[in-house]
Amino acid sequence: MQARAFRVACFESASAALPYVEALPQLLLRVGRGPQVGHAPRHTLSDAVF
């Protein structure tokens, strides 16, 4: 019974964190684009992936 409650708690926290996890690639892309403007090909590749 305790293990099931633990799994439910894990699932609830995971589903609560899901929007942040989905937003993370875009955030990293935006942060990575800032200082490294010269590396255009890598960023266009990232844009294609995300």
Keywords:
50 residues, mainly alpha, 84% helix, 2 helices, single chain
Describe the structure.
The chain is an all-alpha fold and 50 residues long. The chain has one domain (2-49). The chain is built from 2 helices and no strands. It has helices spanning 2-33, 40-49. The chain is rod-shaped. The model has no long low-confidence stretch (mean pLDDT 72).
Alpha-beta content class: mainly alpha
Rough outline: rod-shaped
Low-confidence stretches: none
| Rg, Cα atoms, Å | 17 Å
| Overall average residue pLDDT | 72
The number of helical elements comes to 2
Please write the string of helix (H) and strand (E) elements.
Answer: HH
Q: Give the total of domains.
A: 1
How many strand units? 0
* Major pleated sheet: none
Helix content: over 70%
Q: In what range is the share of β-strand residues?
A: under 5%
Gap from first CA to last CA: 40 Å
Reconstruct the topology from this structure:
Layout: H1 2-33, H2 40-49
Concise account of the structure shown:
The protein has 50 residues and is mainly α. Helices cover 84% and strands 0% of the residues.
